[in-house]
């Protein structure tokens, strides 16, 4: 009934003589500029433009008549097909036109210098043109009605013209204060204009006689289009906006709107500072306001029960006239121009012949205003936490959308359920006991339909769960209950005091009538209840139960078996345990609070990397259902040491000793330690190697060296091996040593030793009795003479070489017995020896003579 009354009220403000549906023949659709019209059908504004046309210049407001859209852009006039946007005729030159109007098969255009022209609406053929006299600046869109075109001009004062639609003859003129930016509004037998300072006029349509004037104390440039509606005239000015009695000019009230207001029988719609207000015409009280995205800018229009307005960001809104709720919203992707007249060419929407045409700069967008057939016979039935909405299918429908509100007629633009392919749908998540209202729309290839009839239902609460029981487990509780008769799932609520269950469910979406909660603290008291859930609604609570979870059983009888660098522990399994945790410390009762091992799934484990010199203490805990038990009894163990490498073997070589040993378990490498006295090995190893053998070089031959080896393991060094010693071998000595006796001397010769640098000669007087100190050292050659010997004595000799590796072994032993002085060893006298002896005798004789002669003569004796 409310919708019917609203429709009747809207029809009441449509001028008499219009057909059904009305056409858009002037600025703000109709000649009264009230911006109110009807769709001629069931309004269902669509989300996608039927067509978009780009013109060469910004378009002013369009006209829609006879399934044609007339658009003026940059002085060019076009006729476009309302269904396709195709150009039917044009562009036709319209002499810098600033506005259009339509009447009786003709389109009229006025230019900015006052040239008023007519065009055949069917063909675009030019008709008459007349230069309006007396003025030179025209900015007011024309208005045509009942055979006359009315237009205002400015420049020298102001003039309102009435021009014959048939031949262009000026029927009458009237002087006005200025004459710009005010499109004449037509009322019953009157035409109205309004200019700066609210100089507002009413003239007789036929004669031009002035009916009344609201004189102002000032005047100037600028004006605003007045709106006639319901016997009232709405006039605007920067100084204030007034409502006049259209018959007498009496001021009835005031309002505030930056664009032409939309005025219906009971409600006026004013746009001011980006907010649209719906105001009761009779009382001036605000019914609702709407700000949209904060940038509302276009002049609004009203069609059927919907108010349409756009924002500068390009968003179009359709608003329910009674509540202001959004019933349609779409983004054009384009900036929409202001609806304020003095910002440029007058811009406004037009709606007729099944389309809403929106100018957006150079673009014109045409949105269909009718959709596919709506479903019928919509009913709604109560359901737990929701409602089942059913309907009779619409012809050709593919899917349906369901809309929900808590007030009748207040269904929002956004659907609650979409894409329904059948003829019914469950609407969930409703509050039991609340009345909901439902409409359904067809959604198909041709768009979205208007809303169906409205149905209502009151959702019911789900039946509660009952007979709740609880069974305690280790750190857990198992709940069971009698199922609800209409629940789809259950929620479990937990608290620490009677009646203190949390409002947030601990377990949700349980689809059976049993549930287990784990991770509870053994020994603590818990209170629990269950609620049934259906379609997003929850029932009242079940009976409350109380439970104390049991503790987890601890492992028993742990034992420890020491290993090298670790230990293996074993215990008796705890009942119900899923895993175990091992804790380690280095003093009795000093186990760390953080387990050394977790997730142990058997009753034994091995721990490594322990120091063999330390005693370790262990406890074990079981984990049952996420609950950790108390500790087992404590056990201690000292890990075994690695005995170190075995079978140490030293193999002497020349200047070196090769050290080898057997492998040690777990060893990663081995360190070799050396000294020159028993137990005197240095702290720093001479070699560290991964293998089981290494030569130690650079040793002195004949010196004894002592060694032990340690294995290096992940848990530290092993015990030292058994100590062993060895002496490096000497280099091979000289060979072929021979001795030749002489008078009190022996000559030795030998063959070279390898790598010899020098040679040392050792002598003795018995076989093998050579002294430890050489009689000659650092001999660079392979022979030498040993002199000063005692004739007749047998001498024994060996030779040793000095090499980089040390002193060599002794050569073979050679011996000789030198003769006494003057005797050979048994052969003929050597001539050279005789000569030497003679010289010696001579020298001794001279010496005796010198000693016997007086001192003064000794220097003269030869």
Describe this structure in words.
The chain has 862 residues and is mainly β. It has two helices and 73 strands. The strands form 18 sheets. A five-stranded mixed sheet has the order 1-27-28-29-30, with no helix packed on it. Strands 36, 37, 39, 40 and 41 form a five-stranded antiparallel sheet that branches. Strands 44, 45, 47, 48 and 49 form a five-stranded antiparallel sheet that branches. The longest helix has 22 residues. The relative contact order is 0.06. The N terminus and C terminus are likely disordered.
Uncertain segments of ≥5 residues (pLDDT<50)?
A: 1-20, 823-834, 848-862
Mean pLDDT: 89
Structural class: mainly beta
Strand order of the largest sheet: 1-27-28-29-30
Number of strands: 73
**Rg result:** 62 Å
Oligomer class: single chain
Task: Summarize this structure as a short list of keywords or feature phrases.
disordered C terminus; mainly beta; 5-stranded antiparallel beta sheet; 862 residues; elongated; 73 strands; disordered N terminus; 5-stranded mixed beta sheet
Q: Can you summarize this structure?
A:
Helices cover 4% and strands 45% of the residues.
Layout: helices, strands, pairs:
Elements: H1 2-12, E1 36-37, E2 51-54, E3 63-65, E4 68-73, E5 76-81, E6 87-93, E7 97-103, E8 106-111, E9 115-120, E10 126-131, E11 143-145, E12 148-154, E13 158-164, E14 170-175, E15 185-187, E16 190-195, E17 199-204, E18 210-214, E19 227-229, E20 232-235, E21 241-245, E22 251-255, E23 262-263, E24 267-272, E25 275-280, E26 286-290, E27 301-303, E28 306-310, E29 315-320, E30 326-331, E31 350-352, E32 355-360, E33 363-368, E34 376-383, E35 386-392, E36 399-405, E37 417-420, E38 424-427, E39 436-444, E40 447-448, E41 455-457, E42 466-473, E43 476-482, E44 489-495, E45 507-510, E46 514-517, E47 526-534, E48 537-541, E49 545-547, E50 556-563, E51 566-572, E52 579-585, E53 597-600, E54 604-607, E55 616-624, E56 627-628, E57 635-637, E58 649-653, E59 656-660, E60 669-675, E61 687-689, E62 693-696, E63 705-713, E64 716-717, E65 724-726, E66 735-742, E67 745-751, E68 758-764, E69 776-779, E70 783-786, E71 795-803, E72 806-807, E73 814-816, H2 831-852
Parallel strand pairs: 1-27
Antiparallel strand pairs: 2-33, 3-4, 4-5, 5-6, 7-8, 8-9, 9-10, 11-12, 12-13, 13-14, 15-16, 16-17, 17-18, 19-20, 20-21, 21-22, 23-24, 24-25, 25-26, 27-28, 28-29, 29-30, 31-32, 32-33, 34-35, 35-38, 36-37, 36-39, 39-40, 39-41, 42-43, 43-46, 44-45, 44-47, 47-48, 47-49, 50-51, 51-54, 52-53, 52-55, ...
